[in-house]
Amino acid sequence: MFVTLALASALQQRAYMQPETLCTIDDTRITESSGIGASPSQDGVFFTHNDSGDSARFFRFDRTGLVRAEFTLRGVRAIDWEDMAVVRIAGTNYIYLADVGDNAESRTAVQIYRVNEPTEQRSTEIATYQKYVITYEDKPHNCEGFFVDPQNGDFYLVTKSATGSEVFQVKAPPRSGNYTARKLGDLRISTGGLGGNLVTGADISPNGKFVIVRTYSGAREYPVIGRVHDWFKQSFVSVALPAEMQGEAICYSRDGLALITSTEGKPTPISIIGLRR
Question: 41-66: per-residue pLDDT in tens?
Fold first, then answer.
């Protein structure tokens, strides 16, 4: 009864306003924004990276859309970076870069990289990072949704498939190395319109209490009731997204009171969807 009441209360309190334009990135280096994250420590600071075809780099930009810095991972070859997670865990701010795209479903393993959040406003090369090599327990999957539990560092991967998404978990890896993604269950999602059943991004709120999953046409927010790894089993709130050319990314704002989205294309509009209060 307590869990049922808590779930009902969480859903009643969550409603989002209509999307608005936060800024526009007009920079020749960013043409296919595929992941986005908000700095946990710096207000108005965001990070993004391109889709496949770019080098192993990500960018810092501000609320005006100005790119302030470019960061490159030394010795890394980017195959298909599809999402990122910017999260504070035990007082340290990290950026996770998920090289998990696999349209042909042929990669024997995918990679996730973790770096400490850079604070400088200058372009630099990053030589220190963790590399997690992930193999799915059953077979290769195409994946574009990824987030990290801020409470314990567990990884969650949401696959992209027209026949239905699946949710996988990697329990917090303690160091660089090889790990197995275990299936938690199926996620049936349909937000209507073209591509409404194809997951292109995901995130968890800074307090770990809500999970957002987007498709090309819309988004759903799930409350975390009890254990985080049951998030996709809960009832959801639908969230309207802006009309985007090819919407690929979504994240929570630093305070968790808004959602931020981006899309492929240049210039790149960045939208904000405020929580109704």
Answer: 999 999 999 999 899 999 999 999 99
